[in-house]
Fold this protein.
Amino acid sequence: MPTVAAGIDLLSSRSFADGHPVEQYRWLRENAPVYWHTEPDGPGFWAVTSYELVREVSKQPDVFSSAAGGILIPDLPPEELEFFRTMILVMDPPRHSFYRRLVGGLFTPKRAALWRDSIGDTVRAILDEVCEWGECDLVVDIAGKLPSYVIAELVGIPRADGVRLYDLTEIMHSAPDAVTEEQRSAAMGEIIACAVQVRNDKLADPADDLASRLVAAEVDGRRLTEAEFCSFFMLLINAGGDTTRNLIGGATASLLRRPELLERLRADSVALMPSAVEELLRFQSPVVYMRRSAARDTELGGQRIAEGDKVVVYYGAANFDPAVFERPDELVLDRTPNEHVAFGAGGPHFCLGSHFGRIEGSEMMGQLLARFGDLELTGEPTWLASNFISGPTHLPVRYTPSAPVGR
Ligand code: HEM
């Protein structure tokens, strides 16, 4: 019989109002790592919270499908699900493997490293925009700008278009009570129109950017169709946007609350940054969950799972599992090894942009600490009301004004 517990609610955004619900995760890991969670407007789902089981699910796409029911907990209307299935994140092998081969070469550590200087320049430009102000909202004015500028750079479009695209994804992600269906579909239409335009531009005039390479990429003599290109474009701006913003916003909030760690990282930034970024990824876990659907009757952690059941893996819970991470509640900047699952827990869908996310995180944290030597909080952060992605929405900070450094 599945365990049912009072006080467990992984659906309510209230549970995530101050970040991950670590106490709920703890109870679940200790008492029911595969827990039957009821759902007011749906059939319910299995919440998987131990590190080992999150990996087990992620590595078996033939048993735990992404395509069958999508990757979000609510079931989508069939036509919407059909659209999302055109995105790599919502495909199963072998279709998924084909797409991954098509685009994978553009996201290797080597390729990502080629972008480090340009990402560093982008970070410098963002900090130059705010350095004279003396105070700002670190999420809106700094962290939120980085992914939109970087995506613009990667794709090869003007920065202003990157910002517009990011705003459009915000509209798409807004809670149903915040925007109308018309606004949402208008935003989606504008993104697709932009993708078509970018594709046509890059076909006519290829450059050394990701979009030009995507247009030209070939596997077994086949290239991405226009519709496939648009889907991938939309996933790229979605997947690389909020996640990176939340990593940087959440990481800075965690460090500002631990001044001794902040100073240590500032003093030894070059040596410490690689492990610190991994630890900040673990600690922040910007993506809360991914859903799969059981492709057949199976068993997981001693529970019988029926074909069609929703199975939801919680990355933040796995990342605080004491079976794998010693003193998981502590931020340990030089933690090694650190096999966190912030980018996914292995398996075919492991984050394609992980190397870009790491570079963005380390460039931003490095330059931020170096330039704003007395950075401090001036108020309490507010947190995103979402059960899917976790991070602050506002982080008011103060620092001594300084002159822009330019390129
Ligand atoms: C801190 C930043 C980021 C985090 C925490 C993150 C996290 C994730 C997670 C958890 C997944 C799903 C893994 C799974 O289902 O097994 C994913 C997939 C993906 N991410 Fe990221 N991501 C980040 C940044 C990025 C960036 C910068 C890009 C693009 C440049 C990107 C592109 C993608 C894509 C295309 C997928 C789908 C891969 C597939 O289905 O094969 N991500 N990411």
User: Anything to note?
Assistant: The domain at 13-144+241-398 is CATH 1.10.630.10 (Cytochrome p450). The pocket of protoporphyrin IX containing FE is lined by residues 58, 88-89, 100, 235-236, 239-240, 243-244, 247, 286-287, 290, 342-344, 347, 349-353, 356-357 (CB under 6 Å). The mean pLDDT is 93. The chain has 17 helices and twelve strands.
